[in-house]
């Protein structure tokens, strides 16, 4: 059955159950609430009380009449209009008595008592005759909005009606939200890079729109996994196939250079430089393909010192920064945590080299390394004063071969793979990397890693907190 008839029938059944339960409880389990007796209106009792009040009015005046109203329960909380037999007002608490006068006139003509509903008010008009024989018309407000809607019996009936409504609504909400939550979880896993994420048996157990949506999601996820796997396999295969020719080219160039008795020609130097670039590109592609597949380069998950790591990276970066007429400074805290040393170093180094590449001459690049033992995180911030990146492109700079402008990476010697490798390396540490433009200009790249502290001298002790990819195959 589709969702529309199920939702429609659920609400319909809820309303029917509400009405049936309220009526059944009222009939089978009669309950008396405080105030029911006072709210029950008896015309005969009211007629006797009104006649007595009219006799007091004739004998003792209007003040005694009002006092009489206060001591008679049926008249105490109700508004009373008193008219003579010609429907002329004698005692009235209202400024406008035209409606009450017309009602009194109708009763005077008919000679019978009448009930009338006026909005949320119930009015009772009755002819009276005093002991002296004079005739009057009394218009009594039997109940108002407060008396009709604010009472225990009404609240009790509403409470009884809410029981089936609540149960049906809860069951319907659970029926609709549980598959949506499962589908949302699968979508988040797929977005996080888990290409095997699926909605599972959801589309097999349901035959409604949600089941069809789950089936379409699984089909889409399978197609994405197929395309991504083919892409990664293609990159890895092509890179691997290029490795052997490049090795032979390097060997041929070395032999050719040996044959030169004089200074090598500019063409040979250019060929060597381009061959080195191509070799570096192939190596980065192989590394990226392995990281995307979850394979860790040949190293172990080991304790490293944050202070020593950042010191070494900053010292190496300053050697390259000197040629770009800038310098690298930073702050670092002393703490030991578990990581892949070379892989993490390469991730930070790639981000830092990217900052050096675009840093204006004479500027300073900051590398701040700190740890938060409470939040259990290690944070590494790289801040430069370069041109920054368009806000719309901030999330894309970590994708392979992405360029913020055509030819920008090529003109600066890059291939557009450094930040992609850094992103995959951080992901394999179960961390996160993000970029944002600084308010004063430049780009800030933040690497956040989980603070995993070694539990013993053996970094592979079972109680050490290993990342989810620690047991991945090695390259």
Structure description:
With 475 residues, the protein is α+β, with helices and mostly antiparallel strands. The protein folds into four domains: 3-33 and 152-184, no CATH class; 36-149, 2-Layer Sandwich (Beta-Lactamase), CATH 3.30.450; 209-292, Signal transduction histidine kinase, dimerisation/phosphotransfer (DHp) domain (Helix Hairpins), CATH 1.10.287.130; 302-450, Heat Shock Protein 90 (2-Layer Sandwich). It is built from 15 helices and twelve strands. It has helices at residues 3-28, 36-39, 43-60, 62-71, 73-76, 98-110, 145-149, 152-191, 202-205, 209-259, 266-292, 306-323, 341-358, 408-411, 418-428, and strands at residues 80-84, 89-91, 114-118, 121-129, 135-143, 302-305, 327-332, 336-339, 364-372, 377-383, 432-437, 443-450. It has a five-stranded antiparallel beta sheet. A hairpin with a 5-residue loop joins strand 11 and strand 12. Helix 10 packs antiparallel against helix 11 (266-292), helix 11 (266-292) runs parallel beside helix 15 (418-428) and helix 12 packs parallel to helix 13. The longest helix has 51 residues, at 209-259. It is elongated, with a radius of gyration of 44 Å. The protein starts with a helix and ends in a 25-residue tail after the last strand. The model is unreliable at 406-411, 456-463 and 471-475 (pLDDT under 50).
């Amino acid at each position: 059955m589709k969702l529309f008839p199920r939702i429609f029938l659920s609400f319909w059944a809820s309303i029917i159950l509400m009405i049936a339960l309220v009526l059944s409880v009222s009939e089978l389990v009669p309950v008396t609430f405080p105030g029911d007796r006072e709210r029950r209106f008896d015309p005969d009792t009211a007629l006797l009380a009104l006649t007595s009040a009219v006799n007091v009015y004739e004998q003792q005046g209007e003040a005694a009449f009002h006092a009489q109203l206060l001591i008679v329960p049926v008249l105490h909380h109700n508004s009373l209009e008193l008219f003579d037999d010609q429907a002329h007002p004698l005692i009235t608490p209202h400024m406008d008595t035209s409606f009450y006068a017309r009602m009194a006139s109708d009763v005077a003509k008919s000679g019978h008592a009448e009930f009338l509903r006026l909005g949320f008010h119930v009015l009772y008009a009755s002819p009276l005759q005093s002991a002296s024989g004079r005739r009057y018309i009394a218009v009594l407000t039997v109940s108002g909005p407060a008396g009709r809607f604010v009472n225990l019996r009404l609240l009790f009936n509403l409470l009884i009606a809410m029981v089936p409504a609540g149960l049906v609504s809860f069951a319907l909400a659970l029926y609709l939200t549980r598959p949506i939550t499962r589908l949302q979880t699968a979508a988040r896993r797929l977005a996080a890079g888990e290409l095997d994420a699926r909605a599972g048996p959801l589309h097999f157990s349901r035959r409604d729109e949600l089941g069809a949506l789950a089936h379409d999601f699984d089909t889409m996820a399978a197609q994405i996994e197929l395309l991504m796997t083919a892409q990664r396999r293609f990159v890895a295969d092509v890179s691997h196939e290029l490795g052997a020719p490049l090795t032979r080219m390097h060997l041929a160039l070395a032999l050719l250079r040996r044959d030169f008795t004089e200074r090598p020609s500019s063409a040979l130097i250019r060929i060597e430089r381009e061959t080195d670039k191509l070799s570096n590109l192939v190596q980065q592609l192989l590394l990226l393909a392995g990281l995307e597949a979850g394979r860790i380069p040949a190293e172990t998950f080991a304790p490293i010192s944050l202070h020593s790591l950042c010191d070494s990276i900053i010292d190496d970066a300053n050697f390259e920064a000197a040629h770009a007429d800038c310098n690298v400074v930073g702050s670092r805290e002393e703490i030991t945590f578990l990581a892949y040393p070379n892989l993490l170093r390469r991730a930070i180094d790639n981000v830092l080299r990217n900052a050096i590449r675009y840093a204006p001459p004479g500027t300073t690049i900051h590398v701040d390394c700190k740890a938060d033992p409470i939040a259990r995180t290690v944070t590494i911030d790289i801040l430069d004063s370069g041109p920054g990146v368009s806000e719309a492109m901030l999330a894309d700079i970590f994708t392979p071969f992405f360029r913020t402008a055509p030819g920008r990476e090529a003109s600066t010697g890059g291939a557009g793979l450094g930040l992609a490798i850094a992103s995959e390396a951080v992901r394999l540490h179960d961390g996160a990397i993000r970029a944002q433009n600084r308010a004063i200009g430049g780009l800030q790249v933040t690497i956040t890693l989980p603070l995993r502290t070694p539990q013993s001298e053996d970094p592979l002790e079972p109680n050490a907190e290993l990342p989810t990819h620690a047991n991945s195959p090695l390259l």
